[in-house]
Amino acid sequence: MKTPPAYNPLTRRAYGPAGRYRLYLGADHLLHVHEEYFAERYQRFYFSDIQAISIQRSQTREVITLLHLLVLIATALVLSVMLLYRAPREFVIIIASIFGLVLTTALINHLLGPSCACTLQTAVGTEQLYAVNRFRVARRVLAGIRPLIEAVQGPFNPGDLPEVPPVLASTVQQPPPVPAARALKHCTGRAHWALAALLALDLAASLADLYKPMTGALETAYSLLMLFSILGVLLAALVTQSRSDLPGQAKLLTWTSLGFVLFALTASSVIPMIWGDVNQGEVKYWSDVYSVLGEIPLCLGFWRGLRGWR
Amino acid sequence: MLYDNIALALAVLPLLTCFLFPVTSPFAIAMAIWGWRKPSSLLPRTKVRFILAILMALLGLGLGIAYWTAIIHG
């Protein structure tokens, strides 16, 4: 019976689009393992076949951090309300545990460093190595396999690369026409600026409200006007950003704003249902705190993502 | 195919319910025995999942029989 080749793990398990991935080092090749629960799929890349390995910065870490942040804000608010209304200790412990768990995973995600997408090219095609998803890991993997590739293919010298023939070079200078189905429309981001302005206005109003609460008809009129304005502008922003060239960060922030508004609406209807005898003043206070905590990062994010965009 | 994981899932997942043990436990044991010598992974892999699956399936089978006996005989 043929003994299987020995493989040494080059990376830890990383989660990708369809399961877990891990990269192993074999005698003369890399083994990219896609782990599903009931099966494993393998891709072998022989050192003699590898033409290039490219590493590109990705937004995965920021997206994960943002999601963690939203869950943390929501959990902290729920926890505050529970403590305020002296909810049963068991429920407080459960929510506090969730908060601690999410905080720990957020910290781990941050400490793992910037995320990246690693692509390996052979004569057959290119494959993304989902196991290599952080720069730190990518550097370590490259440092480990570069000598092995050079031992097979000879030392790499950028000067040895063949010059691009003039005919090919002129072809390269003209980008291929983009198929109509994939063409991105231009988005000026005006709806997003309007959304950011409305959020900033509401932020200022919430801060003022914390200092001196609005009451009566003025409060009702302001709340309804602001709610419908934000929802209208949000809808416009979501429509205009669809299939557009707007930066990904601004698109993500629009969806985050939608989640932020929907959570506020849900919470404002659910809390009185759970605690029938809520003090409206306290609910208003915590609602303002939620607005301030959520709108500051959203406004700053929009300003950073759309700065200089026309 | 990772037969050890399949056997383990057949043995453990029904623990979430209290009436499926007698049905899935024999399948888990059969899968563990059938897959024992089958080629599984290219990577180093021990037989510990197979052993765990058999033990859990036997435990589940015992619990299931006891549960249904208690139900039937009041």
How would you describe this structure in keywords?
heterodimer; A: 310 residues; alpha+beta; 5-stranded antiparallel sheet; 3-stranded antiparallel sheet; 8 helices; 8 strands; 57% helix; B: 74 residues; mainly alpha; 3 helices; 0% strand
In short:
With 310 residues, chain A is an alpha+beta fold.
**Helical stretch tally of chain B:** 3
Provide the structure class of chain B.
Answer: mainly alpha
Shape of chain B: elongated
> How far from one another are the termini of chain B?
43 Å
- Largest β-sheet summary of chain A: 5 strands, antiparallel
Structural class of chain A: alpha+beta
Helix content of chain A: 55-70%
Radius of gyration of chain B: 14 Å
- The topology string of helices and strands of chain B comes to HHH
Report, as a whole number of angstroms, the end-to-end distance of chain A: 66 Å
Order of helices and strands of chain A: EEEEEEHHEEHHHHHH
Strand content of chain A: 5-15%
**Spans of at least 5 consecutive residues with low confidence of chain B:** none
Radius of gyration of chain A, whole Å:
26 Å
What is the count of DSSP helices of chain A, taking H or I runs of 4+ residues? 8
Strand proportion of chain B: under 5%
This entry's quaternary arrangement is heterodimer
Average pLDDT of chain A works out at 82
Task: Characterise the protein shown here.
The complex is a heterodimer of chains A (310) and B (74). Chain A contains 8 helices and 8 strands, in the order ββββββααββαααααα. Chain A is elongated, with a radius of gyration of 26 Å. Chain A has 310 residues and is α+β, with helices and mostly antiparallel strands. The relative contact order of chain A is 0.10. In chain A, the strands form 2 sheets. In chain A, strands 1, 2, 3, 4 and 5 form a 5-stranded antiparallel sheet that branches. Chain B is mostly helical and 74 residues long. Helices cover 68% and strands 0% of the residues of chain B. Chain B has 3 helices and no strands. In chain B, helix 1 runs parallel beside helix 3. The longest helix of chain B has 25 residues, at 48-72. Chain B is elongated and about 50 Å long. The model of chain B has no long low-confidence stretch (mean pLDDT 83). Classes of the chains: A alpha+beta (310), B mainly alpha (74). Chain A binds chain B through residues 4-7, 24, 31, 33, 37-40, 42, and chain B through 1-2, 5-6, 9, 41-44.
